[in-house]
Amino acid sequence: MRGRFKIKFFEFKRSESNQKSVKNFSGLERMYQAWKSMIQSMFELTKAIYSVTICKVLTFFIKHSICIAMTVNEHTNRQSLKIKRCTSRIAVPVASVVVLTLLFGFSISSINGVQVAAEETVAVYGDPLEVFNQLMEKQTKTQLMIQPTSALPTKTAEISKLKTNIDLEKSHDKPTSVYQEAVGLFVDGNFVGSVENDVDLKLMLGDLLKNNAPESYISIGFSEDIEIKTDIFPASSVMSVNKIREKLTGVSPKQMGYTVVENDTWESLAEKFGTTSNELKALNPDVPSPLESGSHLSVIVKKAMLNIFVLKGEAYEQDLKFETEILQDESKYNTYSQILTEGKNGRAAYEDNVIYINGKEAKRFHVSTKMLEEPVTQIVMKGTKIPPDGSVPGESSGTLIWPLPTVRTISSNFGSRWDTHHSGIDIANGKAHGETIVAADAGTVEFARSDNSGYGLYVIINHGNGRKTLYGHTSELLVESGEKVIKGQPIALVGNTGNSYGSHLHFEVIENGIKVDPLDYVQP
């Protein structure tokens, strides 16, 4: 088969008459294999020095080494005589080859990247004899014919003739069958192409790293394994360094799988993978909308053949949030909360090592932390007692209800009014007179009478948790001072007593002695 080279030893049927000759054959077989390995290595040498003389020596060498192998079935005496004769005839060529090998520092290594041994005679890029003749073509411009001598006939088997005819003119018509020495580039074991000069190739790779290097970094390199190898490659694979660079840096689309996580949408994933939501949906026609966590999608990712990683050291400062310690007070309701010690954030300096691939952060490793300012823990006291629902007289529920159930209109809000401060809200609709006022929460009646404050007849209820409520301008009181009331219990009727201009309820909320906006606690 053209393009591959393989030598098969002739097969002999063993019988009692030729047992002895076959045994003698094993030693010669090993000798032949060793010589044949040496011959293949000589092709590199002949290519380097372009010596027609060496070419002829190798041709002569092949012919007579095969001759030795073909004579193994002759009678032992005749065989010995033939071996001596052939050995004397090849002594001079062998000596010449050895001398030339030493002079040129040649070492038996490999042909086309495959280690030559007695057991391996198949080359990677083609027939070694064909490669040899192609390399000689430029100098000789003639057809080289290598045809081993026919084997002598034996009594037990008919030995086929081995013939190799290399037509340089035909090989020249097929560029893919032409080989030359070049420098090949492999990325993760995959052949990219070859160039004539390894210096330009290495400079190009160095420029790729230099152009992508930040001002400061720990190390920089390629994410993939790079191998540069000088060998014999097809001439069609040889290209310019710029072409190699384009192949390495150009991005190509690759289809990959993606598992949907929480908060993923078609739009967010389209932005993430550099596409549109419609294209993403077209690629996944069986995936329903909206996306569900755990669903599997196919996405197109643009990936370069060669990727650059940079390891950088990063130093930065960051606030340390303070912790909160909760203390419990079983004597207070769970609506109670008081800060005993204010919390304060701290400050720390961090050092990280970060890996960037093509400019994007891929992984971060924490190296060290230095405390600049310790955070201060916030201490909070909270009550644990479950408050009543207001149905027990005197026991506050902790929440307030609207104090005038039948009227929901606010006629005056909390805040500035008539160049003064209005400390509560007024509830009236023109028909409120005589309507029932209820306790906004359970508690103890602290005040239920009239005085000179301007509130007329009014009621103050202490809810026992630092909170009080006031109900002013009533027309009639339904509770007495010191009485314990429940949430929603009637306590008075709407009136127009005191400093009032029409029947209405003036309602106040007092927190720890401070009057606050009632609408922060109740809504109409």
User: What structural class do you assign from the helix and strand content?
Assistant: alpha+beta
**Radius of gyration over all CA atoms, rounded:** 50 Å
Distance separating the two termini:
99 Å
Q: Tell me, what's the shape? A: elongated
Q: How is the main sheet built?
A: 10 strands, antiparallel
Helix fraction? 25-40%
Main attributes of the structure:
524 residues, alpha+beta, ten-stranded antiparallel β-sheet, four-stranded antiparallel β-sheet
Q: What order do the helices and strands come in, and which of them pair?
A:
Layout: H1 19-49, H2 52-70, H3 76-103, E1 110-111, E2 114-115, H4 128-140, E3 145-146, E4 164-165, H5 168-172, E5 179-187, E6 190-195, H6 198-211, E7 219-222, E8 226-234, H7 241-249, E9 251-259, H8 266-272, H9 277-283, E10 296-304, E11 308-320, E12 324-333, E13 337-341, E14 346-357, E15 360-373, E16 378-385, E17 410-412, E18 415-417, E19 420-422, E20 425-427, E21 436-438, E22 443-450, E23 457-462, E24 467-477, E25 484-485, E26 490-494, E27 505-511, E28 514-516
Parallel strand pairs: 12-16
Antiparallel strand pairs: 1-2, 3-4, 5-6, 5-8, 7-11, 9-10, 11-14, 13-16, 14-15, 17-20, 18-19, 20-27, 21-26, 22-23, 22-25, 23-24, 24-26, 24-27, 27-28
